[in-house]
Amino acid sequence: MNGNGQGHIADSPRLAALRAKLQHAEAARDAAKAALTDEDRAEIEIREQLARAEDDVREQDRTRRKLDLDRRLEEAQQAYPSAKLAAVMIKGFPDTFIVKHDGKAFARFQQEAVARQTSSGKKGPSFEESRLNYALSVIIDWNGITDWSPTNSNGHDLRTFLKANSGVATPVTDAAWELAGSAAEESKSAG
């Protein structure tokens, strides 16, 4: 009887086919479970525990780096009270950055982009070189390094790092573009 007190109604062909698929899938599942030994199950459990522990280590490291970056951003805000600043932490990279809006660097980047568009890219630096130069102009802190004087190799090291990891420059310049947009909006509303 079904729930209405009537006799069993035969499955439609669609439901019958679906029930057959389910029975086949359950049989395959049971066979797969039976193929695992107790040692296999123990290994699977240990591997899952290991993966969770490794995830925890990564999360703790990310949390520590975020805290360090937040502290450095606060220090930078005290050092540059009227500047627009942004913290940049890139997934998959241990490096962190603090970016400061630089109107001149932004204008230069835009001028180079216009020059590339109007001259079929034959004039001036390539987009990648422009982006790299813009990133170098706006980064004021790289993993706590803030001394960019010519008497040390920090600037050279950062340039080398960004060239070797070209994907890192994009989130840095994206943050700088957002700061430039914010500065432009403020100047419109103040004017």
Describe this structure in words.
- By secondary structure, the chain is mainly α.
- It has 2 domains: 11-79; 81-190, rbstp2171 (2-Layer Sandwich).
- It is built from 6 helices and 3 strands, in the order ααββααβαα.
- The chain has helices at residues 13-35, 38-79, 103-118, 127-138, 154-164, 166-190, and strands at 85-89, 96-100, 139-142.
- A 3-stranded antiparallel sheet has the order 1-2-3, sandwiched between helices.
- Strand 1 and strand 2 form a beta hairpin.
- Helix 3 packs antiparallel against helix 4 (127-138), helix 4 packs across helix 6 (166-190) and helix 5 (154-164) packs across helix 6.
- It is elongated.
- The mean pLDDT is 88.
Quick structural summary:
The chain contains six helices and three strands.
Q: What is the CATH topology assignment of the largest domain?
A: rbstp2171
Number of helices: 6
Number of strands: 3
The major β-sheet equals: 3 strands, antiparallel
Poorly predicted segments:
none
Strand content: 5-15%
Shape, principal axes of CA atoms:
elongated
What is the radius of gyration computed over CA atoms, rounded to a whole number of angstroms?
29 Å
CATH architecture of the largest domain: 2-Layer Sandwich
Strand order across the largest sheet? 1-2-3
Question: CATH class of the largest domain, please?
Answer: Alpha Beta
Mean of residue pLDDT values: 88
Please bin the fraction of helical residues.
55-70%
Total domain units: 2
Task: Report how far apart the termini are.
Answer: 80 Å
Task: State the order of secondary-structure elements, H for helix, E for strand.
Answer: HHEEHHEHH
> What would you call the structural class?
mainly alpha
